[in-house]
């Protein structure tokens, strides 16, 4: 049957070892000498070991006490870290994170999961929209951190990675062979006009088959082989796939994924969220 060490007794044990005596340790712990002595006795009884060498006039640890001391320090450090992280006011509140629809997957769920494990009392309000709107919200102080997909990076931003745009269609679909090419994009998608210009330059006729304010509508239409779209490499959703067109469609440009962090958000939680985003998109 598992046996548990008393952290209060361990704290007294470490204090006695560091202070060199029960009297000084009791003062540091704001306890009576008898209380500290009782906790040491309880710890020895629980372990069945003699931890303090009482044969000398000064406090000395036995061999078992020396061995326990290192474990005790680590256990108390971990206990104090957990308690501080879960209860300190610095680790409470809300952070507003803005992310374009088309780069939420696959990185953002894992980022949110990791952040929640580290800061369970901090709520992340995920705002998913298109880049131009997110930048407007950020400028007005309504987002603390945003990711964007852009050709360049504005002052104050940080480019995490640059990825090529690729053609996306239904698994095994054939819509990409049809002419005019049927396209599906959100109204405010930043990729849309560049894709249309690339098709015009290649002399490929096209038509907007699906225009929507919902990324889900676009995804459903593409997965049903009703149209094609373009996304950053590695961000396609389930039930769609990269079109292996063999040169039948024009190659597309690349886009930067940028991170902007507000000057008005500070503290370890915001810094940790930014670090997780950097790792997720740079790796």
Brief rundown of the structure:
The protein is of the alpha/beta class and 283 residues long. It is elongated, with a radius of gyration of 30 Å.
Give short descriptive properties of this protein:
alpha/beta; Arc Repressor Mutant, subunit A; 9 helices; 2 domains; two-stranded antiparallel sheet; elongated; 283 residues; D-Maltodextrin-Binding Protein, domain 2; single chain; 41% helix; seven-stranded mixed β-sheet
Give the rounded overall mean pLDDT. Answer: 91
Note the gap between the termini: 44 Å
Radius of gyration: 30 Å
Elements, N to C (H/E): HHHEEHEHEHEEEHEHEEEH
Shape: elongated
What is the β-strand count? 11
User: How many domains make up the coordinates?
Assistant: 2
Q: Can you give the helix content as a percent range? A: 40-55%
Describe the overall structure.
With 283 residues, this protein is of the alpha/beta class. It folds into two domains: 7-87, Winged helix-like DNA-binding domain superfamily/Winged helix DNA-binding domain (Arc Repressor Mutant, subunit A, Orthogonal Bundle), CATH 1.10.10; 90-283, D-Maltodextrin-Binding Protein, domain 2 (3-Layer(aba) Sandwich), CATH 3.40.190.290. Helices cover 41% and strands 23% of the residues. It has nine helices and eleven strands. The protein has helices at residues 7-19, 22-29, 33-47, 63-87, 107-118, 131-139, 192-201, 215-223, 268-282; strands at residues 52-53, 60-61, 93-100, 122-129, 145-150, 157-169, 181-186, 206-212, 229-232, 241-242, 254-261. The strands form three sheets. Strands 3, 4, 5, 6, 9, 10 and 11 form a seven-stranded mixed sheet that branches. It has a two-stranded antiparallel sheet with strand order 1-2. Strands 7-8 form a two-stranded parallel ribbon. Helix 1 packs across helix 2 and helix 5 (107-118) packs antiparallel against helix 9. The longest helix has 25 residues, at 63-87. It is elongated.
